[in-house]
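Hi there. Long-time user, first ticket. I'm pasting a complex I've been working with (about 1436 residues overall). I'd like to know whether the download I got is complete or cut off, because the file seemed smaller than I expected. Thanks.
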Amino acid sequence: MKKLISLCAAMLTVAVAWGAQCSMSSPHGTTRVIFDVVDGHPTYEVYFKGKQVIKPSTLGFEFNKVRASQSVSNFNNFRVNGPKDMMNGFEITKVDTTSFYETWKPVWGEESEIVNNYNEMAVTVTQTELKRYMIIRFRVYDEGVGFRYEFPQQPGLSYFVIKEEHTQFAMTGNHTAYWIPGDYDTQEYEYTRSRLSEVSSLFDKAWEPNSSQTQFSKSGVQTSLNIKTDDGIYLNLHEAALVDYSCMSLNVDEKNFILESWLTPDAQGNKGHMQTPCQSPWRTVMVTDDARDILKSRLILNLNEPCKIEDTSWIHPVKYMGVWWEMISDYGSWAYATGIPSVKLGETDYTNVKRNPHHSANTENVKRYLDFASAHGFDQLLVEGWNIGWEDWYGKSKEYVFDFQTPYPDFDIKYLNDYAHSKGMKLIMHHETSSSVMNYEHHMEDAYNLMNKYGYDAVKSGYVGDIIPRGEHHYGQLMINHYLNAVKKAADHHIMVNAHEAVRPTGLCRTWPNLIGNESARGTEYQAFGGTQPGHTAMLPFSRLQGGPMDYTPGIFEMDLSYAGNDSKVLSTICGQLALYVTFYSPLQMAADFPEHYEKHLDAFKFIEDVAVDWDKSLYLEAEPMEYITIARKAKGSDKWFLGNVAGMQAHDSKVKLDFLDKGRKYTATIYCDAKDADYKTNPQAYTITTKTVTSKTVLNLHSVAGGGYAVSLVPIN
Amino acid sequence: MKKLISLCAAMLTVAVAWGAQCSMSSPHGTTRVIFDVVDGHPTYEVYFKGKQVIKPSTLGFEFNKVRASQSVSNFNNFRVNGPKDMMNGFEITKVDTTSFYETWKPVWGEESEIVNNYNEMAVTVTQTELKRYMIIRFRVYDEGVGFRYEFPQQPGLSYFVIKEEHTQFAMTGNHTAYWIPGDYDTQEYEYTRSRLSEVSSLFDKAWEPNSSQTQFSKSGVQTSLNIKTDDGIYLNLHEAALVDYSCMSLNVDEKNFILESWLTPDAQGNKGHMQTPCQSPWRTVMVTDDARDILKSRLILNLNEPCKIEDTSWIHPVKYMGVWWEMISDYGSWAYATGIPSVKLGETDYTNVKRNPHHSANTENVKRYLDFASAHGFDQLLVEGWNIGWEDWYGKSKEYVFDFQTPYPDFDIKYLNDYAHSKGMKLIMHHETSSSVMNYEHHMEDAYNLMNKYGYDAVKSGYVGDIIPRGEHHYGQLMINHYLNAVKKAADHHIMVNAHEAVRPTGLCRTWPNLIGNESARGTEYQAFGGTQPGHTAMLPFSRLQGGPMDYTPGIFEMDLSYAGNDSKVLSTICGQLALYVTFYSPLQMAADFPEHYEKHLDAFKFIEDVAVDWDKSLYLEAEPMEYITIARKAKGSDKWFLGNVAGMQAHDSKVKLDFLDKGRKYTATIYCDAKDADYKTNPQAYTITTKTVTSKTVLNLHSVAGGGYAVSLVPIN
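Hi, the file is complete. Here it is re-exported in full:
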């Protein structure tokens, strides 16, 4: 990736009187941070356009005991008190400020060039009595603030164990929050919109069963957390660059409206094992009075390190289909064998079991998908259930659950890869780990080598169920390190990663752009597990997608799953599905339904065929969390535009000025709209497709039904 | 490995009346097991030569709750009660008996052919009310009994979580035990000899600090546990074939003299995650009235599965030296950099740090060792501290502590391997993991590939410090699986493994003979950490070595470590050190001291040069735990014999009849004896070397001082 630094940073070191307040405004002055030490406590507050949006909030850390070695003998050691807490007794001893402006080009993204422009204030706070200090670094953007704790190497602080991080976000009132329940193991929840004071009373209602879940507080919520004040200020709290640290949730003080960091513990209850020099992830506060700015913001990406992969030529966006919805919908099966109570890898003889006729990942079926997908211009095909072990893969706390190497007898791995290549496609590998992570680490290098051997260049990995090592959580430091280690090792093998059930992303795809997707939220699969209410897809771009692209797996055309004996209904319309290819940015887009379902609606399917997956430009035309999102995007290296809207529980009317089109140029607009009588529950497949010639002067009046949407392609004629 | 089955097993199925007692004697009738169900409890007792040695002892399991998936949805699940305990409510429903005799040839060992001869009784016990059963399989040998629990796959029992195994060993009195404190993380203790009733009162005295240790009961002890009755019966309790199960300790009921199994928990306190069909390891009870029979017994090996490596041609015994004692003695350093508080792999620039002049693993020093070792006929040279990360490797709970890939700047890995090969030697790789096991799993395949690249064929691995994943223990199921996985993956790469701080061996080297060594006890290094009392080396062959060879690292000639600024003294004599090459069987034998220390005593060093490391035959001439051991061994494929004795706290006189020598043949005996004035504390280097011609009629009168020993080589003249 090429980085263009347009303006070099100007460094200013300001010596301040001890205890003096200091502050920093954003480049255009919209956002301002004030920092102070109050009664020895580091404290910050945030203003937006002159108005306080974060009240004075304290910062600090509690530490736990650590084990330390004694130098007298190489091996004697004892458990000792760790360093004292870094909660109070501080003074400001130094303030460094700087300004930064750059533009950089992402390998893939919502736009081909990203501006990173902030003013920085790095405050050194010292516990004078302990002769110990840390730096709290603020980067102030026009759309918000990022700050982190930095612990330089120093005599009194080499290693420490975090008991808890105490970062407060003190709200100015009982705002409206759009939240999912705090959980150490899953984010696969629907959003609840409520006052901050109501979280604990609504918590149990918001809590739904999952394959692995651990609640820690009835007033706990997850990030990225969106908040709206009664006077129309939008806030978004999240974190950026979560590396070698545990994931942060927030706990709500429902009386004082203070949100406070709550880290994920390890199996022993510790929340971080730190070695200086080190830092926390960035804690981010986006703030705006226009919800579209949240979608437009690149604050999370900008707070991450530049790309660390030198040659990125092998990384590319992917539009794919998959042998997947068959199993999710209950139509097919991951498992090959039927009628056996359990399997043991290396012992179970698969040539001698009864084959489940519904085993989807069989050569013939995969070939059928490849034929359809290649005919319609797809890049890749995901195949799940190709490898042995699925008969009892889940919920058994089974350590040696998969080997990531051995295909089922009816899956001809060589033939199918060769066949895909002959059609100009690739298969996508699938590594479900069943959260048996020691086992995955043990097999990972061999697994990636197998991929290289057969010509796979992308893997979907999965972490369903409780983590082994037992007692660890999906969002603890050990797992955070694992996910990133898997991405780095994949990069060594020129493999792109799409990790499901992994931690919510925090912009690391800037640094490791082979991380082309994550799940880490309630995806389309829940439409087959009972359904997901409208509004969800108008929420995710504000929350989950802030950290990076989501493999949401859209494109379901057959909403009635009774063909699979499943009484769940997909609560969406066909046009609502089409819209997602525009409103959910991802370099990895799936057409998730069956070929035979698309064949019934090839006219609508055409939009999925046509839509781009990488962009030069994105315009956020309309947006309100849980209500509606309208986005226009220009395809990368092309003059085509695509437009999409999703509507929440209310129908939505748009008046879209096409003034973003090249002036004086004509375009063919193909408009995919919910039919007037479309209904996400009772009539989801009703749509209209109209074509007209438009220019930059055209205004389109477009309508989405509740739970529906629209999609438009704009192709230049001249 | 070639296996010779001389006599095929004869299978007898005996239908017995429900509740009837059943019994089985050993092939020559010395040992007898009686099994019964008493008040619903499975119960066994053991007799030796008609005398009860294990009183009726109950058998059974308590189970914990498990997580289970629900089939309604693919992802819904809940925590449910696991299967009910298997403690009582049993009836005998079937008894199968069989006899077995075979001889098999180990890849390496104390003898070239091993007899495996037992009578077997497999008792099916059924919880009739629950329609559930298990099999308790006894193998009765003349020198003892092995039994295990087998859980066949059955409707009521697919997955279960062990809360505790309740296997009792009820002693017939307040016997003398030779024990080390029960610990989930280390076996590196000195032995205490006491009455069973005294364990808890002596526990704290027996407990010494270690890099990772977890006691669980003041009356907890470890296996292999030796016990002696007042009427001269020797018992040895241990386990065989510890696979996918947690390691067993024993807890002593000091009033009733009942020892009971106590498994190692995982981070959540569970003691085993089981999937049927499965079994426990063998629980072993050796019993004899001649202590030598314990040393002679191959019961533990015989209870393990035959070799699973098809081509074993690359596995070979190794006599080696090492760049190791320099660091242990405090003379040298593992770490390259000095004056820096900590390192981060990938960030710390080693080319820009101050080099510790005492860094031992430097090219010049390693070359010096290679020159000496090759001149004296050694096979390999271990080099520790070759790779980056040693500056803060230990006691910091540091996950990314080593990469197992990157040499220090002063260690030329290619040159040194090439140089070693040019001298007919190989280097031994060192993988200290610092117990950061997720990290080791992540790098293992690459690490083994690096070994293959440079021509290493053996690795010493190490597990110093607390385990990461945190909360796991060295002897828990997860780690048991890890150690074996490392050995299996090594076999794929034709690499031999010598794992230190891993679980005590249980005979798995029969199945995986590339596991050529383990530490798993207090080795020679403790002579540099304060010393180890005489008696220890006369104990280990009865205890630790029962499960497999130990890398004890003998051969220290310079007992005064003041050259290293270390005031610890090696509590042994030079001849006491020489004896260990015979009395401690291992296919991996080290000469641990510095070349310059050997150069001062090249006449004594000659024995180390000459002694074999693989044997056709071993004769156990004299033995009493903690007191003395005298063994004669015939070198494999040679007519040379070697004889050795170690003495404990008392001097020892032997009258050794050389009637094992070929009749009518003359041999040159070279006798390395403690000098009369030798003393393990004050005069350890005093020895005599005499040479005489001997025959099978010769009787040698040999003397070892307390803490000393003797060694004799017997080389045929004609």
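A couple of notes from our side: Residues 1-19, 68-78 of chain A have pLDDT under 50 and may be disordered. Chain A is about 15% helix and 35% strand.
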